[in-house]
Specification:
2 helices; mainly alpha
C-alpha cells in the first residue's frame, strides 16, 4: 500500500470522527443547526476526496 493511500485512509478516519462528533452533539434527534450542517458538508466533501484517492491507489 502506498504512503498516499495510508495518508488518505487516516485522513478519512479523522473526518469520520469529526462527523461522529457533530452527531453526538445533536443526539438523540440529530437535528443539525446551520453551522453544524456547514461543518458536516465540508467534512463530507473532504471525505469524498480521500475516498477517491483510496480508490485510485488501491485499484
Amino acid at each position: 500500500m502506498s504512503r498516499r493511500a495510508v495518508d488518505a485512509l487516516f485522513q478519512a478516519l479523522y473526518l469520520l470522527t469529526d462527523i461522529r462528533f457533530i452527531l453526538r452533539e445533536t443526539a438523540p434527534v440529530h437535528e443539525l443547526d446551520d453551522e453544524q450542517k456547514v461543518r458536516a458538508g465540508k467534512a463530507i466533501e473532504k471525505l469524498k476526496k480521500q475516498v477517491t484517492i483510496l480508490e485510485e491507489e488501491l485499484s
